[in-house]
Specification:
Distance between the termini: 67 Å
Largest sheet: 6 strands, mixed
Strand content: 5-15%
Number of strands: 12
Strand order of the largest sheet: 1-2-3-8-5-4
Order of helices and strands: EHHEEHEHHHHHHHHHEEEEHHEHEEE
Shape: globular
Structural class: alpha+beta
Helix content: 40-55%
């Protein structure tokens, strides 16, 4: 059967602008209207099915993943921003090769990674907390950006602060191009073109770095067999887009939940419990609201018919709050991950064969940073709890207002 809703071709039928204006409200209104977790509406002028419950998202990403291609190349907008060779826009046999190479670039230099974490990231994190940052998200993003540039590209922030500043500025301009997509052509012409110019300059900066370095940076050494264009495209994706912003989102949400609910007051903060706290933060506030796939052929997704070429958008945020899967879905209950029962899948990093290749890298880093902060500071709210519940959903989920927590040093006796 077809999902309820309307995906007819008409100007008024496309709901892109409405979704981007308030994605959470858009989904909640449609689910209530159709009394169903699956519905259809046009998006980016394409027939689109929307999945909001855990069962359908799990089928799409895991048990039926072979029936779908990645769907981030719609209208060729994101490939223009991040490069057509990026693994996000690839399908077919090349994907496994790309994923293996990228995994090696992320995890293949463990000694260097440990050195940067211990000597740079953790001290910088403690210093930031001691300074009581006015915007925790921006502070964490800056720390992770510097880590990424040094780890992947051998750019030392202490030796080349001006280059770090330029890359950070360009990355912000570049990223803002995503939010220009659903608006009218006149606005797109301005914001999107500025974003493309920023991408062009970032590409130039990284190419210059490749050619003047005394030895190729680690990421290029691993990616070199696949070509310079591919190496630079992926550096831009990971360094200027995904890694700093996703990590900052995960860290901010985890630290806010710790300050808001004080779970460490009721149990000793061992690694297992901190891991459960972080997972529960992932569940409630995944860094990305969802994703998009495209059906390779006609397929049945559980009870629904999906036509070849039809777009399917999955909503991780809502799947993580499915009451059929998670008891007390709106509440912060980290103990749910410690009850010894089989744990349901989270889609924080996607899922299945196309899950984020840096999932374990990111999770381990979040855990290390949260461990370091909670071992040295007691976290508490400065504003009332409602202040921290207002979220900005796109392009990355984070509190809509600057997050300022109180970090009180733990006295050592």
């Amino acid at each position: 059967m077809k999902p309820p809703g309307n995906d007819r071709l008409s100007f008024m039928g496309d709901k892109t602008v409405e979704f981007y204006a308030n994605p959470k409200s858009f989904i909640e209104c449609r689910v209530a209207k159709y009394n169903a977790p699956v519905f259809q509406q046009r998006f980016l002028n394409k027939p689109t099915i929307w999945l909001t419950d855990h069962a359908h998202v799990n089928s799409l990403l895991i048990s039926q993943a072979h029936n779908y291609d990645q769907g981030f190349d719609v209208l060729n907008i994101l490939p223009q921003l991040f490069g057509t060779s990026c693994v996000l826009f690839q399908n077919g046999p090349i994907v496994s090769q790309l994923r293996d190479v990228l995994a090696s670039s992320i995890t293949g230099h463990s000694q260097k990674f440990e050195s940067i974490i211990n000597e740079k990231v953790l001290p910088a994190t403690l210093a930031a907390c001691m300074a009581q940052p006015e915007d925790l998200y921006q502070s964490m993003k800056g720390i992770i950006t510097k880590m990424s540039l040094e780890y992947f590209f051998d750019i030392d922030p202490e030796q080349e602060p001006e280059l770090i500043t330029e890359i950070t500025r360009l990355s912000i301009e570049h990223w803002h191009g995503i939010m220009s997509i659903p608006t009218n052509i006149k606005i797109v012409g301005h914001k999107f073109q500025n974003s493309l110019k920023a991408k062009e300059r970032l590409t130039q900066v990284f190419r210059e770095r490749l050619h003047r370095a005394s030895k190729p940076p680690p990421v290029y050494t691993v990616l070199e067999p696949l070509g310079e264009d591919l190496a630079v495209d992926h550096v831009i994706v990971f360094i200027s887009a995904l890694l700093p912003k996703a990590m900052a989102s995960l860290l901010t949400s985890s630290l806010v939940q710790i300050a808001m609910h004080e779970p460490l007051e009721r149990r000793e903060p061992d690694t297992e419990f901190l891991d459960a706290i972080i997972k529960e933060s992932y569940r409630l506030y995944p860094p990305f609201f969802g994703g998009r796939k495209v059906a390779k052929h006609h397929v049945k997704l559980n009870d629904y018919d999906i036509e070849q070429g039809q777009g399917v958008i999955y909503m991780s945020y809502f799947a993580h709050r499915d009451p059929k899967v998670f008891a007390y879905p709106e509440e912060f209950v980290p103990e749910r991950w410690l009850d010894g029962k089989p744990q349901p899948n989270l889609f924080t990093f996607g899922g299945g064969p196309r899950a984020c290749v840096g999932e374990h890298f990111a999770h381990n880093l979040v855990l290390r940073i949260v461990q370091q902060i909670t071992a040295n500071f007691r976290l508490s709210l400065i504003n009332d709890a409602e202040y921290y519940k207002n979220y900005k959903w796109l392009p990355v989920c984070r509190p809509s207002k600057p997050v300022n927590l109180k970090f009180t040093p733990i006295s050592r006796r």
